[in-house]
Amino acid sequence: MEKSLTHVALFAAIIAVLGLLPKLQLGFGVPITAQSLGVMLAGCVLGAKRGALAVLLFLLIVALGLPLLAGGRGGLGVFVGPTAGFLWGWVAAAFVTGWIMERGAKAPVLPMAAVASVLGGIVVLYACGILGMSLVLKKSLVESTLLMAAFIPGDLLKAAIAAMLTASLARARPGSLMSRRVATGQ
Description:
The chain is built from eight helices and two strands; from the N terminus they run αββααααααα.
């Protein structure tokens, strides 16, 4: 239990640190950041429940006012702006990414982590983010989806990085992927 809490806190910290990397602000209020990479990694490494808990811990700290989002943003206001759907979507993205990793515990890590990162960390995240952006910006779902096209190449790169880091971790420290241990009952 104590080890799980430590891992959850560690991945919340990783997501926070990735927010320190400079963001690229697009004209419609949604920045390109590295933090979604941390969300993908949380799911790949920790599994569904722990990955989602890491993101929830991070979001709680942001809600308390710590400026940990890219560009030094924090506080309750970020949960009602153009990025709100993405913030809430991070929880679902980490959970789905971890769930896929758990279900594919017998498959090779690299391709499984790539599939999990794309489906959870991009498809699920975009679904939440586009819906939120559409509501806040009062745009149609089609318009919001078209605005998101600029993010696809970068997010595919993040998914590839998450998969490679997850596979490297599995090689360097066999048994370290909690997402694989959950599925095999270890």
